[in-house]
Design a protein that fits this description.
Order of helices and strands: EEEEHEEEEEEEH
CATH superfamily: TolB, C-terminal domain
Number of helices: 2
Helix content: under 10%
Structural class: mainly beta
CATH architecture: 6 Propeller
Largest sheet: 4 strands, antiparallel
Strand order of the largest sheet: 1-2-3-4
Shape: globular
CATH class: Mainly Beta
Radius of gyration: 15 Å
Distance between the termini: 40 Å
Number of strands: 11
CATH topology: Neuraminidase
């Protein structure tokens, strides 16, 4: 095991882009996503804030005090980011441009994944305080997630 980066406030979701050798990491409690540029030996050459949720109109406002980016998934240049505590999934392109925000029924959405044809799935719980912590998994087709851009 090798430490890649430290000092993050609640590091959470990770996704790796092999084309750009960029490791995306959600820093949940700072409400941002970091982009770590890796060299051929997987050492961090540079790091930057890829998306700062406090600066995007679609992500700036939140009601749950511990809301923040959680699970991350990358597919064909699109980054899907679950926003835990707000029941939203945000889509960004490789440059960090916000493309769309999709609302899900699970307030505590924490996981996203793409399939090979561009559907993406999101999973989470309706409550994080009431057992049995019921939740669900939902799917968005490319037609559904591409509506607003």
């Amino acid at each position: 095991m090798t430490e890649v980066i430290k000092g993050l406030r609640y590091a959470n979701g990770v996704a790796f882009d092999p084309i750009s050798r960029t490791l995306y990491v959600s820093e949940h409690l700072n409400r941002r996503i970091m982009a770590l540029q890796l060299d051929a030996s997987n050492r961090v050459m540079a790091s930057s804030v890829f998306v700062d949720f406090s600066k995007h109109p679609a992500t700036r406002a939140f009601t749950y005090p511990l809301a923040g980016p959680d699970g991350i998934a990358l597919w064909s240049g699109f980054l899907a980011v679950a926003e835990y505590g707000e029941g939203r999934v945000h889509l960004f392109d490789r440059t960090g441009k916000h493309l769309n925000t999709l609302t899900v029924a699970m307030t505590f959405v924490d996981t996203v994944v793409w399939d090979s044809v561009g559907n993406f799935y999101a999973a989470g719980a309706f409550s994080n305080t009431q057992p049995p912590y019921e939740g669900q998994v939902v799917r968005f087709s490319p037609t559904e997630w591409r509506l607003n851009y």
